[in-house]
Amino acid sequence: MSSFGNRLKTLRENHNLSQKEFANILNIANSTLSQYESDKRVPSDEVKLQIAKYFNVTTDYLLGNETKNKEQNSQDKDEKDIAKSMKKIKEQLKDEQGLMFDGEPLDDTTIELLLEELERQERLVKKINKKYTPKKYLK
Fold first, then answer.
1. Residue where a domain terminates, one of 32, 63, 94
2. What is the pLDDT of residues 81-98, one digit of tens each?
C-alpha cells in the first residue's frame, strides 16, 4: 500500500510540477512539502483538503484508503471504451478496399486525420452524454 507521501509525490510528478512550484501553490515552504513527501511530517486536514482539491482526488485516496476516486474510475472506463471503439474503426478501414472521398482514394495521412477527428468526436459525445440523466433516474 502506498503511503501518503508516495501518493503525493506521484500526483505532483504526474502533473509535471516541481516541489517548489507545488509548495508555492499550497502556500507552504518547499522543505515542508519535502517532509510531507518523505512521510516525515503529516499535513493538517486543511492542507490535505487543498491537495485533494487541486489534484481532483479524495482525501481517502491520498491517505491510501481507496484506490482511485469515482470520477477517475469513470474516466478510465471511458478511455478503454474509446480505445476499443477506435481499434474497431481502424480495423474496418483497413479491411476496406480503396477508401475514397469524392472519387479520390484517401492516402494514409488523410485516413489518420479522419481517425483523429473521429476520436475527438467520440470524446465529446461521451462528455455530453455524462451530463444527461434520464428523468427516471432523477430523485
1. 63
2. 888 888 888 777 766 666
